[in-house]
Prior knowledge:
alpha+beta, Calcium-transporting ATPase, cytoplasmic transduction domain A, 5 domains, 7-stranded antiparallel sheet, 24 helices
Amino acid sequence: MASNFLEYGHGLCGHESEFGCSKEELCLLMELRGEEAVAKICECYGDVNGLCARLKTSPIRGLDGKPEDLQRRMEKFGANVIPPKKPKNFLELVWAALQDITLIILVVAAIISLGLSFYHPPSAERHSDSAATVVENEGEAEAEWIEGAAILLSVVVVALVTAFNEWSKEKQFRGLQKRIEQEQKFTVIRGGEMIQIKVSEIVVGDIAQVKYGDLLPADGVLIQGNDLKVDESSITGESDHVKKKLDKDVMLLSGTHVMEGSGKMVVTAVGVNSQSGIIFTLVGAGEEDGNVDQNNWGKEDSRFPEGKFNKNKDGPAVEMQPLETESEPEKKKPVQRKEKSILQGKLARLAVQIGQAGLIMSALTVFILIIRFLIDTFWIQGVVWSYACVPIYVQFLVNFFIIGVTMLVVAVPEGLPLAVTISLAYSVKKMMKDNNLVRHLDACETMGSATTICSDKTGTLTMNRMTVVQAFIANRHYKAVPEPDRIPANILDLLVRGIGVNCAYTSKIMPPERVGGLPRQVGNKTECALLGFTLDLLQDYQAIRNEIPEEQLFKVYTFNSMRKSMSTVLKNPDGSYRMFTKGASEILLEKCSKILVNSGRARGFKDENRLKVVKVVVEQMASKGLRTICLAYKDFPVSDGEPDWENEALILTGLTCIAVVGIEDPVRPEVPEAIKKCQQAGITVRMVTGDNISTARAIRNSTRHTIFCLNQAGLLNELVNTQ
């Protein structure tokens, strides 16, 4: 790999570019992994800040956002757009529709029928004691071609209807995909402000904010991270999550998912120059060529000197290296065909069975006719074999063959594919009236055979606009947001500070878009509810964040399905630490050994106190359909020495409870009627949630329908069916 860097022009460290880095240089840099990448960045740029300086961007303020600068970067490094795969034309769709086994059988039968309909052997008469006469009705002979033509016409209609449906739906889906891509946004820092921009507007040099759940839209180098773990299986095939650290692995690749944590990265490659873009380009080229030419793997690409996918002499093999070696024989990979649906599979088997049965019966009929002819002619009537009569015998055999083919053609159900296609096309049309776009006809079959719908709760059955409506603070249960002067000052300070720093900095409350509207919630909705709670208490969480920027956070234990909580550690000037934690109330209350009371001091939190809080506060909130969140903190004095931050079981014990809040997320008004219609159609509707079981029951009562509940630990707990 090192030779690649040095042999390309002035090499990776040449920096002969308007921005100090060329596109090819950055592409080669993104091929490195782990400590090798960290070492190369240190060698060529000093550190990540040096790379940012070369790209003329600030790790803190990002790009200035001037249109001319953004345009220049797009021209130099490319736009963050991957050209879509060329769609099939109408004739290709017709050809694909004709690959159905039923249609193939019909076409073969129609061709044979048409061919025989134009064959008219001369009439032949055989005079003997019981003369056998073959007489053809001229009117029937002239109309024999109609059957074959009708079969071909039905095949053409089926192919055209299927192809037209595929073509029109593909066109609609491309338009929808284009609109979705235009609406898809990502958080970047420009001019010192965190803003959301379209993914297609991201350019090299942007400082992007990444967090749990994000699908990375571009390649980048990590600048700052908090317990960041990424699923790179889409690129490397490895299922284990990769932990990203500034001293271990700083490469973030497009198309990968952030599974834990948060952080910031400087964008280094976009569009077709990113790792996922390169893969899409190669896969698209391979599909267009039918198969990737293995002889061209590793040969020079205009963008990648020395072969982007060669096995490197100086380092390990990089991604997408071909599996075959030169000594192994080339094996042509079979072209993968689309898997058939259940209905298509049944129809194909039925067509084959009918064809086989028809073939057996027609062959048996021809055999019986031939045997009958031989017995009647040479045995019963005693006709002597004569070579002069061979043409007459052949004419009889041809007539018997025509009868057999006719039976075969009649056995094939030419109306079946047409009836199925028209009925599915009608279903597609009806679904379109309900704003349901169906790309493939066989998808209607899947929808029609659905018996169960498992629905997420938050944002699907509910409005996903969360607000804190109840709170348990200082040993008092408030059924509404309390006035700030009713809360002890030190508890209020802990509450606001804990919410401010222990919510992702990408979550925030923005002014309403129109006068009289509701404030906009940006980011995680639960965290937005907590941030809104601080505003309702007439406090300013942003002032806390300005005082403690994200870069000063000592350690962050991000939320995941295992922890069911999020914790942020701050280092105090005296060397001690304070950790703020929020999470599911049932779990965190078990880890609390103290609780803040109305005097503002911490008091012991015994098992009987805990049970009372759960019974009187948590369960009452949950019975109202509220999501309960516990807020707590823990101090680590200097006298206790440096904690073992990797021992989470020890870190997350001995907490002090600050408050328990109840968050409301109302059920969407249209949900009960929608569930009622599903049940009338014989579809069981279940709700899958990780909330408290009492919260799930309350939502069930709101929807008055079936619910499938998960308890707060994420384990299967209860199945409640109210049908």
